[in-house]
Amino acid sequence: MSNPETDDSRSWPECRIQALPYQEDPGRRFARIAGENGAVLLDSGRPIARRGRFDLFSAWPQIILEPAPGESGSSFFQRLRQALDQLGPARLPDGLDLPFAGGLIGLLGYEFGQRLETLPNRAVRDLDTPPARFGLYAWALISDHQRRTSQLLFHPGLPDTERDRLIGLFSAPAGADPQDDFHLLAPFASDLTTDTYRQAIERIQAYIQAGDCYQVNYAQRFRAPCQGAPWPAYRQLRQACPTPFAGYLALERGAVLSLSPERFVQVQQRQVETRPIKGTRPRHADPAIDAALAEELRSSAKDRAENLMIVDLLRNDLGRSCQTGSIRVPELFALESYPNVHHLVSSITGTLAQGKDALDLLASSFPGGSITGAPKIRAMQIIDELEPTGRSIYCGSLLYLDVRGTLDSSIAIRTLLIQDGQVSCWGGGGIVMDSDWQAEYQETITKVHVLLQALERTQQR
C-alpha cells in the first residue's frame, strides 16, 4: 500500500475518469450488476438521507481474499497490503476529489476480532459466512452528491477492453426496474425468549456489580424464512430506512444488506475520525411527542454517561495507532435523527503515527467499542458467554481501503444477512448497572422494527 509520507504521489499513474449523467439514487445503475460476482454498493442513502456525500459501487474483483483457517488477523492484513501493492499506486486527476482510486472493498465479521485478540470461541457459528472477505477492484462508479456528479473511475491497471465494456454498460439506456421477487414465508421470530433475555441482563449486571466491567452490549437475533433474490429486499429496506452508511454486498449464497447509521473509522490523508453512537429513543408520528423524546435523550444523564464511556474507550483504541497528543473530541453528545430512532453521537479524531497505516488502525480498534462495551476485551468475553450464537456480520464492518491509504468503514448495525433461504437480523443495546431489562428488550426491537416490518410486508398470504 502506497504511503503518502514517503512516496511522491505526483509520480503515480493517473486514474481515468468517464463522466456519466448524475443520479442521486445509485440503485438503478447498480441493479444492472447486483447479481454479478463480487457486486458491492456503499450507499449514502440519498436523496432522503442527507449526511453522506458519496456513493460508490463495483463488481468483478480481480481477486477475492478471505482468511485461511487459523490465520491470524495480522497475517491476513498483511495479505491485504500485498494485494494493494499488486494493484499498484494511483492518483486522481488534478482538481478531482473522490474517496476511492481502486483497491479493497469488503467486510469484517464481528468474529474477526478473535483473530486480533485472544478471546474465547464458545458461541455456536450456525451461519456460514466468512470472518472477513475483500475484493480487489480496479474500477468503481462514484457519485458525489455535493458536486452532483456521477463518474466511472478506472485504476490505470484496468485493461482498456474492460474499461470500454464498463463505459458501454453504464452508458446504455436504463431498462425497466426488475420485478420484485423477494418475499418472506413467515414473520420474524426472535431466537431468545423474554425470560432468557432477562436472565442474560441480570448476569451482565452481576458482572458489573462485581467490578468485571462497566457496560456490555447484548443483542438478540431475529430470523424468518424467505424466498427470492436479495437485491429487491435491499431496495425495500432502503426506502423504509435510508441511512448514510448503508451497503449491499453479494455473497455466493445470498447477500449482506446493511442500513447502518454509524461510521466506524475513516482515514483521509492520515487524519482519523470515528463517530460512535450510544443512546437511543424511538421516533413518534406526533411532532410534539417526537421533539420531547429527542430532548429527553439529549438531557439523559444515563445516556450521556454511556456515550462518554465509549468515547473514552475509543480514545484509547485510536491512541494505539495515532500520534501522541493528536486525539481530540470535537463533537460530544450530538443528536442525530433517523426514520425510526433518535441517537446520541460523538466524534473522536486523531492523526496516524509515523509508520502506521489504516490497517494498523483497524487492527487496534476492531470491533468498534460502541457495540462491545467497556472494558472491551472483558465485554467481548461476556458477549461470547451469553449470546448463544455468533454475530456473523452484525457489529462487524463494511469498508473500503484504496491504494492511497484512504479508508472509510461502517459499524454493521441495522444489518441483515440473507443466506440459504433465511433472513437474519440483530438488535442490541448497551447494558449498564441501572438498565431496566424490559426497557432494554424493547429498545432492541425499536432499533430494527422498521426493517423487520418492511420485509414482513412482502409476506405472501
Automatic annotation (TrEMBL):
GO MF annotation list: 4-amino-4-deoxychorismate synthase activity
Broadest EC class assigned to this enzyme: transferase
Gene3D superfamilies xrefs: Anthranilate synthase
Protein known as: aminodeoxychorismate synthase
One record GO biological process: folic acid-containing compound biosynthetic process
UniProt organism field: Azomonas macrocytogenes (Azotobacter macrocytogenes)
Documented EC number(s): 2.6.1.85
Superkingdom in the source lineage: Bacteria
Keywords assigned: Aminotransferase, Transferase
Ranges for domain Anthranilate synthase component I N-terminal: 25-149
Key word Lyase present: no
Domain Chorismate-utilising enzyme C-terminal stretches: 195-447
One Pfam family named in its UniProt record: Chorismate_bind
